[in-house]
Each structure stands twice: as C-alpha cells, then as structure tokens.
Amino acid sequence: xxxxxxxxxxxxxxxxxxxxLYVSEESIITPAAxxxxxxxxxxxxxxxxxxxNQPSASSLDxxxxxxxxxxxxxxxxxxxxxxxxxxxxxPCGLRIVKGSHLILEDFNTGNxxxxxxxxxxxxxxxxxxxxxxxxxxxxxxxxxxxTKDEIDYIVEGxxxxxxxxxxxxxxxGDTLYIPAHATITLSTSDKVKLLYVC
Length: 198
Known about the structure:
By secondary structure, the chain is α+β, with helices and mostly antiparallel strands. The protein has three helices and 14 strands.
C-alpha cells in the first residue's frame, strides 16, 4: 500500500526537531507537503526498498565502518541549520510561537565586532503586511539604514538610538518607531532584547 505524505507529516517532523523526513520510493508526496518542507527547512529523502542482494552490516569492511563513523562524528560537531520556531496554527489563521523553543541565530552585519542575534517569528506568508521577530544586541554599536517603517518594543535592557547626531535612550517597556530610509545607530554597553515589527 502506498503511503501518502502530507503537510502534517512534514510539520510533525519539524516539531520533533528533525530536518530529514525519510519516505519510501512508493510514497505519494502531496504538493502541500513539498511547500511545507521548503517553509520549515525539512528535507524529504526517498529511500529505496531494501533488496535481498544488499550486503548485511556484518559483511561490511570494518575499516569502512570506522571511516563512516568518524565522518558522522565530524558532521555532528558542525553547526546545524537553525530550526524554525515551534508554532501552533489554527485553520482560521491564528498562530502561536512557543517561546520556550525559540533559538536566536547570529545576524551578520559585516562587522565581526557586532554581537546581534535574531529570529523571525512570523514571515510574509503568515502575516502578509508585516515581518515580526526577536532581536538581541550585546555590547554593540550597530548602524543601518532601514528600508521599511519599523517598530521596536524593548523587552529588556537599555538601548541608545542616535540619528543625525541626536541621541535618545529607550528602556524596557519603551517603544521606538523608525521611519523608512532613516540611518540610525543602535548602541548598548550591556544586552538588549527587543521585538521588531516591519
């Protein structure tokens, strides 16, 4: 009997913090499953059915097995692709991002001294008018020119915001509005966590 692979199967794989979903070559993969796999960073891998002519594990060369194990160990020590946020979704469109599973990723500004981490919570597919995420800055002076209007809510810490040589201080509980095309420097001597909406 052929197995039907759906978007729900892909979602379950991602929720279990797995990045590969193995299916048999007889499986039927729905278009929605392929779309979900791209969105959630899950690779659908087809495994052929085992053949009676395939060698058993006991007939493999021990030196080859040792090399395979060594390569796997090297791979496991490498940084893995970041997992998407764990979300609950209702058919009406309601979404909940689980903060307990949230892992922020390094944000490359081009300056190795910048210590910024970020995680997009809702993308344009889920929230057509906005991009929403969490950002942290630690002992950083970061200058950028915004391409879109942005609202930042300071969750914790103190942030200095400078524009055209004028500086303002925002603390936990404060909200910033940064207009599109403004060049602004965000600075902190400690650590700041903020929620951004673009």
